[in-house]
Design a protein that fits this description.
Ubiquitin-like (UB roll), 4 domains, four-stranded mixed sheet, 16 strands, flat
Amino acid sequence: MSIFYKFGVEAGDAQNVTCDGMDMSLGDLKLAVVDQRRIKNVTDYDLQVENGQTGNVYTVEAELIPRGTTVLIRRVPCNRGEKKTWRPEYVRAEGRGSRGGGELSSLVVTSTSEEGRLDQVLGASGAEYGKENWERVWRPRAPRPLAGEAPKAERRYAHGIPSAMLVPVAETSSAATAAKVDRFGSLKLTAVERDGYSQEKKESHQWLEQEEEEAAKEAKEQEEEAKEAVEVPKELQCPFCNDLLEAAILLPCCVAAACDECARNSLIEQDHVCKLCEEGDISPNDLIPNPLLRKKVAAFKNATAGLQKTLEVQIGRAHV
């Protein structure tokens, strides 16, 4: 819903201002009209709001106007020498403290709307970190070492540590580099720090040894698993390579089962002479595929799929 407004001298339809709640205060309505009409922040007139139906003039800034109301707005000149500021700027008091930092006064929020207050707070946030609020602190430094001289470690002061917890430290000890200076100028450390610096650092390689032991154990287990063999039946072994048949075929001379590749290579190397029965004039093209034996080989592979973890198969070598 909205609140409708119209300037008294304007013709045409009334314009609307969005009302999020059930009503809107007079001050928020004026600010919304100023933003919508792009009126300057400082003017020499004020806005008079009048109810379009009852003719009642709203005078209190906090007075609530129900949504759906149509109002008439008129420009009323201010008194001589006065100006109307719609959104007053926040005031920041500049001051210098005893320790050099700038002291900011508390933010003076003068806006009556929530949006205006948020704008003022966001505009003032971070102002205390400005350049004018900082003062450079000069700290004396020790003279720089000459050429060839070893640099001296800068001493830290033992601020905030009780004197009962500090123990003296010799300048020649290994803990002297981390020692702190007390109020009397002597080097001191806490007992825990002194004991820590007095002990030589020893690197532990136990985690490396554990990793090596675990890796060796895992390699040993894999090697033992690799030695596990799957026994291949005699009828599924190739007489040439003594391994499981691959693409099983039958030799036409002696009807022996063998791998297709092994049988072809043997016939080519032996000048078409069978190595098993020594019969000649056998062509590699005369080899007979054996589908039944190939099915048996496939069934054996499926049955031993979970057991074949090895890279080699131990098979009893057959003597030809």
